[in-house]
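Morning F.,

Quick status update on the modeling queue. The single chain you submitted on Monday has been processed. Sequence for confirmation:
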Amino acid sequence: MEKERTAMKSTPAKIMFLMGLAFVPPLHALQTSPKPAPGTAQPAASEKVPEDPLGRSTPHGTLEGFLKAADHDDYEGAAQYLDSKLRPQQKQELARQLKLVMDRGLSVNLDTLSRDTEGNTQEGKLPITRELVGVAKVGSKSLDILLDHIQRGKNPPIWLFSAETLVGVPEMAEEIQPLWVERHAKTLVEKRLFSIPFYRWIGGLITIPLFLVVSWLVSRLLAFALRRIFPRLTEEGGLLSQAHLAGPVRLLILVLLIYLMSRLGYSLAGRQFWTRVATVLGILALVWLALRLTDAVSGLMGRRFRQSNLPGRIAVVQLAGGLSKALALTAGLLLILYLAGFNLSAVLTGLGVGGLAVAFAAQKTLENLFGTVMIVSDRVVRGGDFCRIGDSVGTIEDVGLRSTRVRTNARTIVSIPNGQLASMSLENFSARDQILFNPTIGLRYETSADQLRFILAETRRLLYEHPRVASQTPRVRFVKFGGSSLDLEVFAYVRTSDFNAFLEIQEDLLLRIMDIIEAGGSGFAFSQMSFIGKARSLDAEKGQAAIAEVGRWRQERQLPFPDFRPEQIAELQDRIEYPPPESALRNRHV
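C-alpha cells below.
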C-alpha cells in the first residue's frame, strides 16, 4: 500500500518534469563551495572543497535528493538524508514515514529553500546551523520539518533532516488516514500503467472534458458580461471578438484545473512539479491576455482618432501599445526566470547595461520617439495645418513615429525629425481665429491736414462698417512723417481663419481705401528712388470738397478725432454690403 502512495514515476511524467525544469540552471552552478566548519583549517586558495555526491551540501539539495529517492521507493538511499542512528531497516521505515508526512501535511515551495552551503544566513529565531523547511500539519497536530548542518569527521559539513524532527515523525504518520480512493478503490491504486496508478489516469481523462465544458461556459458568460457592462465597446467593433479573449481565458481555466488536480493525492514532489507548471502557464496566460487587450484598446483608439482626423495621435497610440506589450513580455520573462531560480539582480543588471547600450546606439531614434509623444500630447499641429517651421512654410501632411512631413508651397515634401521639431519654433497659421490686416499707407506731402483728417475718419468709418472686420479692433493712425510720404498705419482683425478668404476681404478693403484717398483729393506717395517723370497733380476740386466736409464736422462739433463716439461706432457696424452688390460672387456668399 505504501508503494502506491508514491507519485510521478512514469517515463512520460519524467519527461514532463524535465521539460518543466529545463530552464533551471544546474544545481552545482547555483551552489557555492562549502565553507569549513569553525575551528578547522582554511583550505588553500587553489584547493577546492569536494561537494557531497548526494547533493547534501545545501538545504535545497538535501530536500530534492530525499524526495527523488523516496519517490522511486529507494528508501535505502533516502535514509542517508536523515540524522539518525537507528538500524538500517528502522531508518528506512522512518524515511518512508517522513515522506508520507511531507506528502500529506507539508505545503512548501522548494524553490524558496537556500541553495547556499551555509543555508539562510539572515538573522532569525533559528541558529545558523539549522534551516526550517516548513510546518507539516495533520489534523490538529503540527511538526516543524528542520534541517541541521552537520559535520562528520573530516568530511565537509552536510545538511540532514534534524533528529528533533525525526522524533515526531512516527506519531504524526499514525494520524494520517488513507485517501478516499485507497479505501474504496484499492484496485485503481494498485494497478498501474507506465508506473502511474490507474486512478490518476482516470482523473486526467476526466479533466479534459471538464476543461472543455468549463471553458465554454466561462467564455459565454464573459461575452455576455462584456456586452452588458461595456455595450458601446462591443458595438464599436466587438472588444471580445477583436481581442480574442477566449484563448487566454481558457488557458487560465486550465491553470486552475491543474492546480486543483495537483492537490488530489500527489506527492510533495508531484505537487511541486504541477504547481510550477500551473504557475508558468498562468504567467503566460496573463501575458497573452495583456497583449490581446492592448491590441484591442489600441485598435479602438486608433479607429476613433481616424474618424476624428487626428493621425498624429494614432502614432502615439501605436507607440504606447508597443511599449506596453514589450513591458508585459519583459515582466513575464522575469517572473519565469525568478521561478526558475535565476538571480534577478544579475539579470536586471544585465538588462540595465544592455538597455544603456541600446539607448546610446539608438539615441536619435529614441529622441524622435519622445519628440512624437511631446508633439502629439501638446497638440501643436495636426494633419492639414498650415505652418511655418524654421525656414519651411507649408501644410502638415502627416505626423509619423519618426518624422513629420510638410507639403511646401512649391509642392515639395520636407521631412523634419520629430526630435528636432519638438525643439524648433513653430508658427501654426491654421490655429488663428482671426487674421491681422495691417497695411501702412504713404500719402503725398501735398496732402493738407484737413484732407488727411478726412481720409483718416473715412477709413475708420470703413473698418467699423465692414461686416468682416472685428468692430472692437480697428485702428487707423497718422504715425509719422516719412522720408517722402505721410504714413498712415491701418490695424484691424478680419473675422476669418481661411487665408484665401482673408485675401479676398483684404483686397476689398484696400480698394475701398483707395476710393477714400481719391475722394479726399490725395494720392499715394512715390519714393525718391522710384519717382521718374512728372507726378500726376492732385485733384484740387476733390481736395476742396474734403476740406469743406471736415469744416462742416467742426461746425457741428462732430469731428471724429481721436475716434468716433461709441454710439456712432455701434450704428456704423455692418452697414457695408460684402461682397458688393455688383460682385459676380455675390450669390456665393449669400
